[in-house]
Task: structure prediction
Amino acid sequence: MAPFPEEVDVFTAPHWRMKQLVGLYCDKLSKTNFSNNNDFRALLQSLYATFKEFKMHEQIENEYIIGLLQQRSQTIYNVHSDNKLSEMLSLFEKGLKNVKNEYEQLNYAKQLKERLEAFTSDFLPHMKEEEEVFQPMLMEYFTYEELKDIKKKVIAQHCSHKDTAELLRGLSLWNQAEERQKFFKYSVDEKSDKETEVSEQSTSISHLPPEVMLSIFSYLTPQELCRCSQVNLKWAQLAKTGSLWKHLYPVHWARGDWYSGPAPELDTEPDEEWVKNRKDESRAFQEWDEDADIDESEESAEESIAISIAQMEKRLLHGLIHNVLPYVGSSVKTLVLAYSSAVSSKMVRQILELCPNLEHLDLTQTDISDSAFDRVLTLGGGLPYLEHLNLSGCLTVTGAGLQDLVSACPSLNDEYFYYCDNINGPHADTAGGCQNLQCGFRACCRSGE
Result:
């Protein structure tokens, strides 16, 4: 089914938030040690807060969407009559109040997992049904302008239940970044009406239309966008527009190269010196990381510089994961981490979870394993648009892991699928092979490295 115009699509944005919350509680559930009382209570408190937000979402839908539809169509819809939210909240309260020891915690954990699994299996299809059944009905019974007003009220209601900081964090998980920008606008406009009236007579760059500002921002580097985001709230929101962050090159950015265009325009075949420097940095950083008490006086100047660069890259990656990708991840198309000195399987796992629409992924010569792709496989959905995947030199990725990954990437093009020739992986006859074999100076397991 073709997507509805985003201005009148009242379900998709809040549902993305709900789906993200489902992913978060599934992740926490898998990592919780139920023998540990602190872990147990922290999980239940988190679940209680999550399901309270689900309940709030349900109430808003009932009043501002389903209720209006019932009035207009003269039909009763029992949309939320059996989603078991109240029962789940009671379950969490019971666990917090009544479970006293490890034995009870472990017994409760079994019941909790079963109930959450059943809830999730009903909740996700329930949201899909709303999008596919009730959105067309809304389009039939309401005018375009009426639906725009309904959507604005829905967003405003979500905003009214959160303070500003929590709201911005929540909205960062909604839908694609271009859509999120408009949701931010709805929540901010009402608060800034008075300020606008006071400053109507003044003129500055801040008074330019958002589309003009966005065009200006498109000429800025990622570093400059981050600086602009610190000017004021409006600029911060514009700087987090997805169209500005389609192509990510953290390894290059950490070394002062702020290119952010499409991958084909980048010189993706590095020269010998560049590869050697990245290898030296990676080796120095790993040695330093393994022995944090190393006497700095024993380091050579070259080693010290290499470690500093790798540390900078690690900080940049963490910054992207925690401060940028939650807002723009769904708009990212290209991610190049080739020869990264600091990236780990955990980082890649977090990035892929936040960037489900990737088309080009380059992890050449990185120290990752099959676990880097765990979230892509367990959350479902995979990477449906991924066409280019380069795992040349990733020696700890296994054939079985590749097979699972390929099954989650239906658009993958064999011509642009590269991995180590020593791995008995999928599409062996048609995949691009290991790019390292095609270049004399690039590191490869077959050259003895």
Observations:
- The chain is about 55% helix and 5% strand.
- Strands lie at 247-248, 334-336, 360-362, 388-391, 417-419.
- Confidence is low (pLDDT under 50) at residues 162-201, 290-302, 436-449.
